[in-house]
Please model this.
Amino acid sequence: MSLAAPLGGCHATPTPREAIDAARPPQSCPTFDGATGARITWEELLLRVRAADAVFVGETHDDAAAHKAQHALVAAFLDAHPSGAVGLEMLERDDQDEVDAYLAGRLALDDFIDGTKSRDWAGKDSWVPWYQPSIDAARTAGRAVIAANAPRKYVSQSFREGPDGLRVLPPEERALFDVDEAILRDGDWERLRELMIEMRTEAVSEGDRSAEPPTDAEVDAVHRSQRVWDLTMATSLARAWKSGMPFMHLVGAFHVQRRLGTAAIFLRLCPEARVLIVQLDPGETLPPKAEWNAGADVTVMTKAPAVDP
Model:
């Protein structure tokens, strides 16, 4: 025994594979109607998934139970929609060729993962147990996978320089992202400002006395970079939907909280879509917190104890 080991033993952090294997079945997760706050069953959620043609599933990236729930939701959605597709925030538009080659059997799994630089997307060796099952479900069913997001370098460029530099890029690069002609200080801006204030306040509480409240200019910079992500994803999904391709999109929860971000833009682009927003809330106490439930159609609590209906 190593002398570095505590006398009582130590518990190593589980790998992503171990975590998802040990995660609770989604049927045991307390599930709530977003509008009324009433408990609903997992079966009722699946009925709503099957009835929608544009489903957004908001996740916390390192929540293994959320990924297990996603796998079940993707399976139900694809089963109900013969032309349904899976969209992912985690894949960028310049990954689409690799995605299509993998789906068609022209690219091996490791080559696909290496080509898209996905292996450690949400932590070391997280891709295969957490995200690959949704892609493989689409592959088995002969369905499309939408690499929906903007490449990170353009998001970073927007943060540093604003949108003008993006607009003058050559057409082959412009095709990899979308950028607003004018970005207003809207609900997304206010939400980002609230988050930044919260983060700065937390930094002060932890001893960083130099942390100042964000300036409007700082919020503007974060807002314009966030908008490249949200607008690009929403536009990618809108193109699919308008072509007759229903979709389930896996995305970080912040992108659809309060029905803002990606969800709000998609709703403006496709007002006739039957949209369902499912939030996978990692809170451990009932009921769901407002920031998760607000704007959601259904909230699934992945870590709260199950209770009798």
The chain has one domain: 25-301. Strands lie at 31-33, 39-40, 54-59, 85-92, 145-149, 247-252, 275-281, 298-301. Confidence is low (pLDDT under 50) at residues 1-9.
